[in-house]
UniProtKB/TrEMBL annotation:
Residues in the signal sequence: none
Higher taxonomy: Eukaryota, Metazoa, Ecdysozoa, Arthropoda, Crustacea
Family: Belongs to the NAD(P)-dependent epimerase/dehydratase family.
Pfam families hit by this protein: Epimerase
Domain NAD-dependent epimerase/dehydratase: 28-127
GO biological process: L-threonine catabolic process
SUPFAM superfamilies: NAD(P)-binding Rossmann-fold domains
Name of the molecule in the record: L-threonine 3-dehydrogenase, mitochondrial
Organism field: Armadillidium nasatum
GO MF entries: L-threonine 3-dehydrogenase activity
């Protein structure tokens, strides 16, 4: 992980399920439900935590399937880590998303501070902090986000499966490679407070459509077969079509 290259201290990964397996020397894994405040306090005290990078969330498509749970995990969970950070003087990072914008947000480019009005509970819970586009990583399986097709295609290509795309071929969405994502996270965390103009920035890298990605992947795996079966994520993705400024 890019972060590990920079951090000399122990990283404690708090998880509710251990569905990802990094190298064991990365640091201890601790079971912690983001909704269990006492448990979070114990983790902070036991491991003498001073920075908290809060990734737990239900992503856009999964959140729409279970809105009450998304409200709890994404909003109550966020309030828990904010309260925890206040109590223990932690430096807190919470990633946001292009899903925090809605159909009324200006495009090309979308300013850092602008009208948002997101249409999903995921977007509502992510109005603040660094807004990342879809993140492309081989570390984890797709987690129920609208941009996850851009991760799934690589798994399907390598496994020899047909790639079923849930978006229309010309849906252009902003994306970013995981190393660039972690670099921006690191730069945000280590920038002296007096140099930050605000707490919320848009992060940008590239944008492409499913059709363009398929063409690129086929150059490496010509046998890849593709079908397009747009589902409810197409409606979410339409509002993600934004061009973000570089920070
Ligand atoms: N993947 C992307 O393209 C992308 C883009 C922008 C922002 N982000 C943000 O990055 C973060 C991580 O996204 P991801 O793609 O790794 O998603 P993911 O679904 O893979 O990971 C979310 C994690 O939250 C955990 N979780 C769920 N409920 C929990 C609970 N009650 N207590 C503790 N943990 C719980 C899940 O077990 C899972 O490991 C999210 O906050 C997301 O908003 C992701």
């Amino acid at each position: 992980m890019t972060l590990q290259k920079h951090i000399k201290k122990t990283i404690v990964l708090y998880v509710i399920k251990r569905e990802i397996f990094y190298e064991d020397d990365l640091g201890p894994y601790v079971f912690a439900d983001i909704l269990d405040f006492k448990c979070l306090q114990e983790v902070v005290v036991t491991y003498r935590i001073d920075w908290l990078v809060h990734f737990s969330a239900l992503l856009s498509a999964i959140g729409e399937q279970n809105v009450p749970l998304a409200i709890r995990v994404n909003i109550e969970g966020l309030h828990n880590v904010m309260e925890l950070s206040k109590q223990y003087g932690l430096r807190l990072f919470v990633p946001s998303t292009i899903g925090a914008f809605g159909p009324d947000s200006p495009r090309n480019p979308t300013p850092n501070i602008t009208i948002q009005r997101p249409r999903t509970i995921y977007g509502v819970s992510k109005v603040r902090c660094l807004r990342f586009p879809g993140v492309i990583s081989s570390d984890t399986q797709p987690g129920g986000g609208t941009t996850d097709y851009a991760v799934q295609i690589f798994h399907d290509a390598i496994a020899g499966n047909e790639f079923e795309c849930y978006l229309e071929p010309d849906t252009r969405l902003p994306m970013m490679y995981i190393d660039d994502c972690l670099r921006s996270l690191w730069e945000m965390l280590t920038t002296p407070e007096e140099l930050l103009k605000r707490r919320t920035y848009n992060v940008t890298a590239m944008s492409f459509t499913p059709k363009e990605l398929v063409e690129e992947v086929k150059k490496h795996v010509p046998t890849l077969t593709v079908s397009y079966e747009p589902d409810s994520r197409q409606n979410i993705g339409m509002h993600f079509y934004l061009s973000l400024r570089k920070i």
